[in-house]
Design goal:
The chain is α+β, with helices and mostly antiparallel strands. It has two helices and three strands. The radius of gyration is 19 Å and the shape is elongated. The C terminus is likely disordered.
């Protein structure tokens, strides 16, 4: 199992306050990640900056996708000129 863990920390900007309402992007992150990738989302609106922690389980690549990606990459490399 592969896991993605992303920590986003903002600092040095103007003071932060929690949003009055959740926008589309926030809703998408908070609902989709847990549902689609068995993930966990934690977002804090601290006065010194926003801090977000995202953790998700990534699917294993299938053999078919690996083969397709490998062939595509080889074709691009062959067509490249200096």
């Amino acid at each position: 199992m592969r896991t993605l863990h992303l920590e986003w920390v903002e600092s040095g900007g103007p003071p932060v306050t929690p949003p009055i309402r959740r926008g589309f992007g926030m809703t998408l992150i908070e609902r989709s990640l847990p549902h689609d990738l068995n993930g966990v989302v934690a977002i804090e609106f601290n006065p010194g900056g926003v801090r977000a922690s995202l953790r998700a389980t990534l699917p294993q690549p299938s053999n078919a996708m690996t083969a397709i990606g490998g062939e595509s990459h080889a074709r691009v490399a062959e067509g490249t000129t200096a």
